[in-house]
Amino acid sequence: MVVACVPVGAWAVVTKDAKQKMRITPNASIALDLLRGAAAMTVFLHHANMFGLDGGALAWFRRDVGHSAVVIFFVLSGYVIAATLRPGGGALDYAIRRAARIYSVAIPAVLLTWLLDLAMVRWNISSEVPAYQLYRPWLYFPIDLSFAGQFWRLSEPAFSNTPYWSLTYEVWYYVVFAIAVFARGLARWFLLAATIGVMGPKLGLLMPIWLGGVAVAYLWKQWRMPRGSCRLLVLVTLGLFVLAKGAHLEDRINDVTRDSLSGLLPFPLGFSQWFAGDYGIGLLTMGLVYGLNGAEFSFSPWLAARIAWFANLSFGLYVAHYPLLLLWHGLMPGHGWIAMGLALACALAFAAMVEPQKDRLKRILVRSSARWLPGQPDESTRAAKEPNR
After folding, report:
1. Contact assessment for residue 30 and residue 307, using Cβ atoms and an 8 Å cutoff
2. Would you tell me which of 40, 97, 253, 353 could form a disulfide with 314, CB atoms 3.0–4.6 Å apart?
3. What angle do CA 219, 29, 302 make, to 5 degrees?
4. What is the pLDDT of residues 223-276, one digit of tens each?
5. How many Cα atoms sit within 13 Å of 113 on the Cβ side?
6. HEC sequence for 244-283
7. Residue 129, SS3?
8. Strand partners, 325
């Protein structure tokens, strides 16, 4: 039911009015930033607990909470992409914005991971570094930066950066969305079929969750609940989330699914193996995002500024924290909280350095497109003048 219904609602916004940009109010923007920052911090704490750096104090983060935070990222990503698509913007504008947003962080993150892995191997402080990748960067850099590491039977992390897997899913969802919005006629269907065929079933299984975020944007454009109802929806979805986690409902759903599919799959599903439980978390997140968009929770200027600051760093924190946790865990055995604090500080410093580069990279791409695609100067010029999200 989830697999069928969510893409239908999402397809409506893709094919009907995806280019009608919706207005996200300042209060809603801060509330969504708070959710994004909380999800990034949840992933960090999940991995810190997994390495035992907290002495067991953060045991609640040990189970599948970190993976569920990635599901939240997927819904938020689909929502923001659909909600902020510029009226009049074409495929070139979309491609420039997405490439600048992703590569401004992904390229430094992959390079940082490779350098940290080299150091950890040299100092013999981690067993998680994939040595078969480490000394062949000319082979694995292209895989990482084309986000092909999870296609079909492939299961290639970006060196030791395990959380990078979610980018290999999300970036290709961007591509599918762009084809659906900008292609026309038979070309649209051919390109969609070819792209989904290249992606393979692992990416396809979680695509309804990302499209769920697109569906929320569509619903908000077409039908808006009163503020009180939205606030109630926020409370209900948060309560159901806590209940589901406390009762381990995802584990039960995933166990049934795994038993049903046992022996039927030609290869492991990797990070998609929990797809059934992820659909449930995805539905709850859809309700939460819809509610936050209309709840109009107010924040003091001081708090709003700090939420926005941390949310802006959340992408860089997410893609850099894992190898840094490995590094400091190996360098400071027995000093888990200090190692955790140093890893967090380094990840935030990395994020602060790379975050401003998205607008710089966008300007470079705009100039390049104006040079090599002279038929699109107005579109690329508009893209250069607006901040990237």
Report:
1. yes
2. 40
3. 160
4. 889 999 999 999 999 999 988 888 888 888 888 888 777 777 778 888 998 899
5. 32
6. HHHCCHHHHHHHHHHHHHCCCCCCCCHHHCCHHHHHHHHH
7. coil
8. none
Q: What's the rounded Cα separation, in Å, for the pair 205 and 279?
A: 10
pTM for this prediction: 0.89
Which residue in 363, 356, 354 sits closest to 383, CA to CA?
A: 363
Instruction: Report the amino acid identity of residue 73.
Output: F
Amino acid at 200: G
Q: Where would I find the H helices in 124-224? A: 131-134, 137-145, 165-182, 185-199, 201-222
Identity of the residue numbered 254: N
Question: Other CB atoms closer than 10 Å to residue 34's CB: what's the count?
Answer: 19
State the distance between the two ends of the chain, measured CA to CA, in whole angstroms. 32
Say if residues 194 and 225 touch (Cβ distance below 8 Å).
no
**Triad 9, 10, 12: Cα angle to 5°:** 70
Task: Give pLDDT tens digits for 28-50.
Answer: 999 999 999 999 999 999 999 88
